[in-house]
Sequence to fold (413 residues):
Amino acid sequence: MEKADKVKVLFLSYNGLLEPLVGSQVIPYLERLNGRGFEFVLLTYEKKNDLAKSGKAKILKTRSDLFSKGIEWKYMRYHKNPKILSTLFDLFAGAIYSSYLIITRNVKMVHVRGVTPGSIMIFLSKMFRVKLIFDMRGRLAEEYVGGGLWTYNSIPFRLAKNSEDSLLKIADAVTVLTNKHLEYNKKIPFLSCRNIPMEAIPCCVDLEKFNYAAKDEDGFKKSLGLAGKFVFMYPGKIGSFYLMDQMLDFFEAVYSEMSNAIFFILTPENAGSVLKKASEHGIAGDAIRVLEGSCFEEMPKYYRIADSGIFFINSHEKIGSSPIKMGEFLASGVPVVINAGIGDTAEIVTDNNVGVVIKDFTVPSYEEAARRLLSLKQEGEVLRKRCRDVAERYLSVEKGVEKYYKIYRGLIK
Fold:
């Protein structure tokens, strides 16, 4: 397609662009698809604190940079309270703004990232006769029950499930994050008979940003006072879906055998709560480091100083989950320690020998995992290259873009 022929796509995300997730899992795809015949209007919901922290100058620069890449960024304010009502308000306001954008930008296709923004398009997609891609991002209602945020048959649960079913019935294409979720969807009677494009596209990694070749060239690890340390690294939020207590239990068991080990946590949350938990587990002093508020642009250099990534996640109804951390660690040449039951991750790690999957949350399992990890680490550069190769084979953003492009072109044709 020539530039004049580019198709306008409205991309809806309830996550904000000023959060790391959208920078990692939305922008790289849109940039590449823009070069292949599509232009985007990106509509996000931004949190008050993120807007204040970024400042007007940074927001304007971000908007200008994206516009030069064929992405027009618009945003609305995210509201958290009162619960349910605030979300309904956001969706109502989003429906009005989306209608305006569809009309004024001559939008032909809408890509919704998840059930919540997808709810906006249940009626609008037919009203405006636009093609609709439902990017499921897991089984939201069931996962929120597992995280202790909702209960089965609660009002939020029922609203989310009704929206999910409605979207599956009207979407022109459906994408999920894992092969397990794809197989699950194929068994849903009202979906399996529709004969629409369905594809598994995991959370992928930008291999240029997370660069295997740039292994601590500037002595960054030494500058952090970590020279000679075996660094277990956890990046991300704490609570709900992430099993920090179990990760601390694992590290406590490992530390008794590895006196040079350190648990390095990168989190946007307050360090005090993490350090308190660590102290309760008997971990303190030089054995733990917590770094608050590191931005997405800084993450690659931190990943490269890790000897092992670690992330334990609540496995309740997680067949559709694809942790972003997985691809970022592997692309950086770093093996991982994970728990079973999270999407396709256990199979990828085990089949390709790029880390360890713990059997259960017990001391014997932790100790066995530590021994297997240390055995793997003895492979040195061979292991690092294998991790990188697995990221390229399964989790490259280029492969994800190809799958999205095939769907986009198929719908337009």
